[in-house]
Amino acid sequence: MEKAAPWCWYIKLTDMSYHEIELQISSPIGYPVDVLLMVLVDKSDSSSTNVFMNSHHEELSITLNKYFIQKNSFIVYVYGLKTIVSSTEQYDRVLCSGTIEVVCPVDIQRTVILGLHEGETHTFPLLSTETQDMLPVTIHRQPPSLYRLDANVMFEKEMDFIVFVRAQNQLRCFIVNGRIFNNTFPFELPSASSVSCMVVCACRKQRLEGSIWITTTISHSHVISFKTFLSLVDTYRLYDLAIAFGTRKVTPNMRPIQYFYRNKSKEYFDMIMKQLDGEMRPYLKSNGGEQGSVVNGRLSGLFFSTYTDAMTNIPDPYSYFGPIRLYIQCLEMFNPECNLYFADFYCHDKRHHVTVIVVPKFSMDNEFCRQYLKELDVFYNPYLCLRVQCNGALTVMANMDVTVEVFYTITVNVRRALEFKHGFIEKTKTIGRGYAHPSGIPKNPSCSICNL
Q: Which residues form the Phytanoyl-CoA hydroxylase-interacting protein-like C-terminal domain (predicted)?
């Protein structure tokens, strides 16, 4: 081969069966790549080998274990890494990457061109392969911005966990060594952003020679996708989107309502009356609506609706969530002893929804909401408010231009409400599946109105 340019690397791969493959890896001119990472995936058995090497080498000869290069083809993933060092952490940013397929023993010489693509086009390795056991990695999120990856397994000896993270068109990589993997990200993740990551568990079966580090993949995780929490600024931006949508008319369509209502199955209400002494107890909010909401999986409550038909002034005669509808007088739940917070603005199809949180003053839930959400004036806001009549009586007003959902954080005693005539139950028709999806339905990501 010809003399290598400073931004090119010539690498000869040799296995114990004396198959030899020469790779020319070319990166863009002038890009300060510190480390090259090659992931070699054998298509015959889905095994893979990971090779790290300092970029100051122009020519390298690497001897792999005898099980790697077979008579079939294999895939070469190459990443040009720039090392980022902070006062406490270190990780690598992927500046360029490339992929080729090599057919043994036909392709004796191949060229891998590393492109200056952004993170959306940087490819995770091992996406189309399977190992004997997938690494069971889960993500734990804690507001306002703490994210932790956890593999619920302990190894007999220390492993190297290679983590790939894609966020906001950047692909990053970091390595953790140990018998267990339970680590936070060594860099800040942007708020209100979609993130995907994958963890490769590797065993250092070949020794570290100088600046070349070779490992063999033991297992890897699926691609884990999640959305980072909305910051308080993002929540205010979402509120501004809701206000902009609602102010298309001169004044919001606020109408008086007497009841909040909630649909569930007959079995749900039977359990409440027979097993829970009539108490309808809050439970953790699902991931429905805005995926980055800080209340998802953090705040417990009960969903009630406020919407009534403009012609009949009563709720729709059907429900997506069950055939039994419970009505509770609004002022029993929403009054000056409560605080009100804006939590979400989203849609699934055509109609938009606004979620407000009703929470007792001086409660722990109120402190959580005050820290992470936008507080609304209970007497003056465009979604759900109290109006004082001339005689001093209170009326609850709700916006009908959107579906205002009330997330109520207090236990509701259904039996007592029925006994004291503060509520009643009726049957309704169901449409769709007839029950709420356990994990919630995400908001429509393509809507130009309610997405940040």
A: 250-451
pLDDT at 4: 42
pLDDT, residue 435, reads 75
Residues 166 and 268 in one domain: no
**Do residue 221 and residue 275 come from a single domain?**
no
Cis peptide bond N-terminal to 317, omega within 30:
no
- Over residues 381-394, the pLDDT tens digits come to 999 999 998 888 99
Asked, for residue 1, whether it belongs to a domain, the answer is no
Structure tokens at 161: 């966990």
Residues 318 and 176 reside in one and the same domain: no
118 lies in the same domain as 250: no
**Domain housing 268:** 232-430
Residue 205: the pLDDT is: 63
Domain count of the chain?
2
| Residue 3 within a domain | no
Determine, yes or no, domain membership for 442. Answer: no
pLDDT class of 211 with cuts at 50, 70, 90: confident
